[in-house]
Amino acid sequence: MAYTRKNVSRLTRTERQRFVSALLEVKRRGEYDEFVRMHIAHYKPDGEKGLRTAHMAPSFLPWHRKLLLELERALRRVDASVTVPYWDWTRDRTATSLPWTDDLLGGNGRRSDRQVMNGPFAFRAGHWRITEGVTSGEYLTRDLGRARNPLQLPTGRELESALADPVYDTAPWDSTVAKGFRNTLEGWGVGRGSVSWRNHNRVHRWVGGVMLGGAAVNDPVFWLHHAFVDLQWTRWRQRHRDHRYLPAAPPGARDAQHHRIVARHERLPPWDETPDQLEDLSGIYRYE
Q1: CATH number of 3-274
Q2: How many CB atoms lie within 10 A of CB 210?
Q3: How many CB atoms lie under 10 A from the CB of residue 287?
């Protein structure tokens, strides 16, 4: 029977406590850092050579869907009642709304060094030390809304611009794609600075701190954010039932993306599943 992922704003106090406790236990067991390492290893810009799976590629959505599912399985080995909630950033849009509460994810970082000082994931609480990252920092950092150069979270209208596009992705299958659901949702745009960050990308920028870059998994909000992104893929498929993951076949030998992206029926590293197999997981979980 499929279990349910809920909006974080609808979690009961007990559900919040159990989710946090399960995350801390997965961290204590050393499993959590494996997810951080995996994301760092597969976070490759399209300007580099080689296969891209996690970002700037069609497999952005199935790759993160699989990562999210594996984290959820780890949580449920600790407590079978736990599922990953989603954060609807089109509605809960301030640094004082959910999920930024003392009993859930804690709040913003302090002004001096952006260190998060409250909540269960604060370094001083003693349970959340960063050991895998792209810097030497040991503590969780955030800069919600970017104090020095304020940034707003994406709106429902901006999210709708992605959902309305019936085509999943288009050539050249990278960060420069101007149309298609995948990149409009992932959020690589033209220009420089805040105007180029859309939807998913802008949320990472709005949170700031360790949520910037390949080690973003070190902030537990990563999972709530990506659960909401995953929900958008579900909604897109419900709206455009005749459309599928693209490309259906690998780019040819003369194509610049040859061996650089994953087609629908190709294995999605580091796992054995294909995007085709990950398109519909309604038998495992559903959204409320």
Answers
A1: 1.10.1280.10
A2: 26
A3: 16
Q: What is the pLDDT of residues 1-47, one digit of tens each?
A: 899 999 999 999 999 999 999 999 999 999 999 999 999 999 999 98
In the beta sheet, which residues pair with residue 116?
Answer: 109
The DSSP secondary-structure symbol of 242 reads T
CA torsion sign, 190 to 223 to 161 to 144? negative
DSSP state of 176: T
Strand pairing of 285-287 and 3-5? parallel
Q: Which of 104, 90, 107, 68 is nearest to 203 (CA)?
A: 90
Among residues 62, 86, 73, the alpha carbon closest in space to that of 233 is found at 62
* Long-range contacts from 50-54, C-beta under 8 angstroms, 24+ separation: 50/260, 51/259, 51/260, 51/261, 51/262, 51/269, 52/174, 52/260, 52/261, 53/262, 53/268, 53/269
Residue 133 confidence (pLDDT): 81
Quick one: pLDDT at residue 135? 76
Among residues 187, 184, 188, 182, the alpha carbon closest in space to that of 169 is found at 182
Which residues lie below 8 Å from residue 165, measured CB to CB, with a gap of 6+?
179, 180, 181, 184
Distance in angstroms (rounded) separating the CA atoms of residues 87 and 53: 24
Three-state secondary structure string covering 202-241: HHHHHHCHHHCCCCHHHCCHHHHHHHHHHHHHHHHHHHCC
Buried b (16+ CB within 10 A) or exposed e, 169-200: bbeebbbebeebbbbbbbbbbeeeebeebbbb
Distance CA 161, CA 181 (A): 8
Q: What are phi and psi of 46, to 5 degrees?
A: -75, -5
The whole model's pTM is what?
0.97
Looking at residue 93, what is its pLDDT?
96
Per-residue pLDDT tens for 145-168?
A: 998 999 999 999 999 999 999 999
